[in-house]
Each structure stands twice: as C-alpha cells, then as structure tokens.
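re: ur question from earlier - yeah i can do the single chain one, its not a big deal. heres the input i used so u can compare w yours
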Amino acid sequence: MNRSFSGLPNAAGMTAQVPLVTSAKQPREIQVSISGLGDDGLGTGRFEERTVRVKNGLPGESVSTKVLRKRRGILYTEAFSVVTPSSDRRVSACSIFPRCGGCALHHMDYQAQLKLKEQTLMRALADFQVEPLRVAAPVFGPRLHYRNKARLGVRIIGGSPLVGFRESFSSRVVRMDDCKTLILAFANILAPLKEVIGQLSIRHKIPQIELAAGDHEQAIIVRHLEPMSNEDLSLLKDFAQWSRIRIYLQPKGYDSVWLLAPTDAPEYLHYLNLDFGLCYHFLPTDFVQVNPFINRVLVRTALNLLNPKPGKQVIDLFCGIGNFSLAAARLGGWVTGYESSATAVRRALHNAALNGLSVTTRFKEVNLYDSSSVDFADAQYLILDPPRTGAGENLSRWLSSDGFKYLQKAVYVSCNPVTFASDAATFERFGLQLSEVGIFDMFPHTAHVETLGLFERRG
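and the output i got, formated as tokens:
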C-alpha cells in the first residue's frame, strides 16, 4: 500500500476531485441592494418584501446572489457577482471564501472590519445605557494562519473524503485543501490528511476531527463511531510519523480520548507567556484561546489594567487552566480561581505547581451558574472570563455580598458584546464604572468580537 503521504491514493486507488454537492433544484438567483451589515457580518437587504441576508456583500453594494436557505421568512444568500462594489471591498486571500462558513469578512478591508466590531460593542453598551470613560484602540495581530485550535467536519462523498469547516448556511462540509485561518502546521497537512482518512476501512464512521496546537507541538483527535482495524491504526501511525503530529483517537466522549502515536510523546501540549515567565500545560481536549498572539497581549493588558498589589487578594472567575490567574500570582497577588470544569481545575493546579505558584494560588470547582458560593473575603481585584452566556444571574448576588465592599477593580474578558454589556450594567449598579473598554481581534475575518473592559470603584 502506498503511504508516501505526498499524494496518497484514495480507496479506489486514485486521487479524486469531488465537485460541490448541491440539491437537484438549483438555488434561485436574485439581485439585492445591501443597506446595512449585521453584527454577524452578513449584509442586509430586501427582495419582494422579504428580508435577505447576504454573505460576501457590503453596505451600498448591488449584488447578484444565490439563495442557499430559507428560514422563518428570511432568505440567506451568497453573493457571486458584485454590480456596484463598495470602497471597503477587498479581494479575499482565501480561495474557498465565501463558500466556507469558517469566515465571514474576507471580502472587507481590515480596518473596516475593526470598525465594525467596535461599533457592535458600542451599540450593545448603548442598549444597556452603559457609557465607558475611555475606548482603547483596537488590538490586532496576524490576520492569516493564526488559529491553533479548531473542529472540522468529515464527510465521504463517492468514496472520497471531505475534511473542513461547514459551508455557509449548511451542515455540509466544504471541500478544503488549504486554509488561511489555521496555523501553517495544520493548513499544510489538510490534503494528505484527507487522503489517509479516505483509506480507512471505517471512513464513513468518522464524523469530525479536532486540531490543537501548543507553541511547538500539534495534535489531531479523530472521532470514530466504530472500532478501527489494525490496518487503520497502522495507517494513522504512519501519518503521525510522517507529519510529526500526535494522533489521538476518540471512540466516545472526551474521557475516552487516548494517544495512538507517537507513544513516547510527552503527556501535554504547552504554551509560554514570556511576559510573566510562565509555562502552561494542556491536553488537546482542554479549552485554551485559539489565537496565541492575541492571548498573550490580552493577558498582558488585563494585568496592566488590574495592577494587583503584592500580597492582595485576587478572585478569578471562570479561571480555566489558569491563563490569567497565574499571571496575577506572578505579580505577587494571592489568587483564588473558580471554575465549573473539574478537568480545568486539575490542570490549573498542575500549572500552578509547574510554575512554582502553588503557595499563592487556590483553585476551586464551583458551578458558577447554579451556585453563589464564591467567597470574595477581602478581595480587592476581580478577573472574569466567562463563556458567551456571560457571568449570569449570580453576578448580582456576588456583587451584593459583604466581601464585595473591598473590591476596587475588575477586568472582564468577553466573547459576546451583548452579555458583556448586560453584565457591565450590573457592575455599574453596584458602584463600579466601566472606565476603559476595547476590542481584541481574536478571530480576524470573522464577526467574532473579543472585549476587554476595566471596571473601577467610583470615587
């Protein structure tokens, strides 16, 4: 069997090029004048009294589009021809945009993208009557090949595999031989990875793969619904050796993930934060920020704003594996991290020991959405980095506790402008004003908005 990985044959013995699969009824084509751009990066227009959402369209443009989906009276479309282009339109660096659903704004000038995201944040704050004292300039980094963690779908069409993000407005897997978003270590092996998956005996029973990378190592998790044959395992081991990427298998949930090859690989991936002299260990299944450059700047900025004094108490809610906690401890703070995930708490404790910070840090497993058992004690500093749902209803209970009266500063990292704005209004009701806010472009060319806010006690 050919295992050169420079152009692996598929199961039929030849490399196949698979056309995009469409329904028997071709999508209807319509022309739309775009009046605005939504927070999701889609253009908005009207056609025959119906709302139309347009991918690959910008305000002021007239575009020809294909209707790809109809839902609740709204037409979801993709522009394939621009009649009158916007001055903000740019040629996409990605050959599969706009078909791929991984990015929404590849056609838009980058400075215009940053402006859109800042406007999204400011509009959300205005909706909750929150007015920051200062708005920081947007923070950005590499615009291509920045993403070191992703989940890709797998689908077999006519015996040939597709591995990639989902198509726009569809659950279908896009035909993807390259990616301008994934780090080069992953982008460069997509084509050979597809080919080796195509040779597996259970290729129809592999719904997805996950990618995760540290600073110097990469891993692939293969989800499979049926046991693999010895030949399948041998193929994947050969691929691991050729690519120098760790291969993990996942027969069930995350607790079933195990390392297939190489068997002598270290247990953990890792990333460094040289600003604070820190090393973080994590497993491919752990949550870490997907953009390592922006994460380092985010941690640095957050701790500069918080500026915890040595020996003072710091609370870190939704602390994860210690991304912010350990940096605060390195500056001399006594840190208590709260996290809902038992796995993340174990990793945070491990990382504290790894960095010699076990004495000044504590980590506790608490369901932060069902429990109010967070002890502020005499903490003067607070860090929050919640999921998209925000801090939740417990925020008011936490801020009304007796220990809260000592709190002077809070830094809040958010991936959802609406829940950030809602929680900002709660902070202000309890006497902490939003003194500075700004966006960090964690996901260039997407509509995702990452926000950092500093709240300070009035007076």
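Residues 110-127 form the longest helix (18 residues). not sure if urs matches, ping me
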